[in-house]
Amino acid sequence: MRARLLALLAAPWLAAASLLPAEPAAGENRSGWPSAETLARQFERIAFTSEFGGQSRAGRLIRWVDPIRVRLTGHVPDRFRVEVERQLAELRELSGLSIEIAREGGEGLPPPMTVEFSTSRGGTTFDPSAPCRTLIWETGYVIRKVQIYITPYPDELRRHCIAEELTQALGLADDTNNIRDSIFNDASSRQRIAPWDALMVRVLYDPRLRAGMPKAEAMPIVRRIIAEHLARSGTSSGRAR
Questions:
Q1: Can you list the domains of the chain with their CATH numbers?
Q2: What phi and psi values does residue 107 have, to the nearest 5 degrees?
Q3: Cα-trace Rg, the chain
Q4: Which tens digits make up the pLDDT trace of 201-216?
Q5: Smallest Cα–Cα separation from 229: which of 36, 63, 46, 100?
Q6: How far is CA 217 from the centre of its chain?
Q7: I need a surface site. Which of 127, 136, 175, 232 has the fewest CB within 10 A?
Q8: What's 35's DSSP letter?
């Protein structure tokens, strides 16, 4: 266990927004929700893989189990602080996690999540050209620490980064062009999470799933949760996207 812990802390895995355009999603429909199967494939991609690294996960879910305190560092204009607080409030409701902004000068252990608004582009050696990136440390498939970097690109892109990176930091750590209008699609210009993005967070933190659950065991439950949500909300999802 000690060797595994040290190895993970020494080699975090990372999610980053790309500047490269994605190809259009196959069979995507411009109106209505994605189909239940498309939503299931979306979850499978973003929850069981990560954009860079994360090989130790071996196709297992990761998520937080402890309360999250978030520290904002760097040059944080008020307009972006408001965006971070709004996004965290939405994620708190969707996940059921205790999430709060750490007080300035607070005592005790450092907050497990840091959001740094960098004053220069770059910041890590993983992908210096990316406008934002998230490093996630986990042990035993439980997320213990997150470092998010947001660099000084145009405001619209930084707002997209806030929505994407904070959501990915909860354990949905990959990108995909499976759904065009999604914060997990780097070709999207969304600055707030879409309803189907919100569903991904609800699914990940549904009590029927657990940290470390393998994909083969989790996916039948995931499909059941998605079907229940669509039936409960009366959402039309019969057309594949």
A1: 2-12+34-233 (3.40.390.10)
A2: -90, 170
A3: 17
A4: 999 999 999 999 999 9
A5: 36
A6: 21
A7: 232
A8: P
